[in-house]
Amino acid sequence: MTQDLWTEVDHYITDLLVPADPILNEALQASDAAGLPPHNVSPNQGKLLMLLALIHKARTILEIGLVH
Predict the structure, then answer these.
(1) 34-68 residue pLDDT tens
(2) What is the pTM (predicted TM-score) of this model?
(3) Measured at the alpha carbon of residue 15, what is the angle toward residues 11 and 21, in degrees to the nearest 5?
């Protein structure tokens, strides 16, 4: 599969299952305006991560990222 197809599928799932979130949109715009590198996950990936945390009753979560 090409990246374009994965992106299309990702957008389809997001449009179908994840309603627009004005607060998230503001945060993303503020990150862009501040010149931060893109480091966010897509809305549907975020929902999946939230569900996994809820299923496992996670009390803490460690986020590890790369610095370029």
Answers:
(1) 998 887 787 888 888 999 999 999 999 998 877 65
(2) 0.63
(3) 110
